[in-house]
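DM between two lab members

TW: hey, do you still have the Aminoglycoside phosphotransferase domain-containing protein entry open?
JB: yeah, one sec
JB: this one, 185 aa:
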Amino acid sequence: MPSFKFVRKWLNENIPDDSTSCVIHNDWRFDNVILDPNDPTQVIGVLDWEMATIGDPLMDLGSALAYWVKDTDNQIFKSTRRQPTHLKGMFNRKEVVEYYLEKTGLKPENWAFYEVFGIFRLAVIAQQIYYRYYHKQTDNPAFKDFWIVIHALHIRALKLIGLQKIEANEVAQKYIEKFKEILGK
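TW: and the structure you got?
JB:
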């Protein structure tokens, strides 16, 4: 598994000073909302509040967008999509951010921090699930290839922070070329 050493270092060095605090859900995804059956564009309920806390609202947005997959994303992300974010009329990640910032009036100096944090957070969740699968604590075959997703998330985070080469991390370097082919980049 990739160590995410450079990603962790970059996150630590780029923590925004301009954050605000409010109640955040901390697991904001489509499968945690109830939509109005008469108007599925309207949320009428939000589920799974057990991870709610006080925090930066942009952390919720960055974490939600880590699950956001569009048809223009690589095959690894498309094959593991769990949200209907690819449907016609859905915003892409950039449009979601622009809309959110317009509606909230927030103006982050470093949006990349939130996006990279969301990817890092999702990779940690995927590692926990894969660990359980690998050690036979669960036998759900859907988890069998999570190691590939973890590497793809690592590369996505590295690209966002501008690290195309990872000389200091031989394990990650070994996978870069392999996943460049898979990612089509």
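TW: got it. Helices lie at 5-13, 57-66, 75-79, 93-104, 111-134, 146-160, 170-183. The chain has one domain: 5-183.
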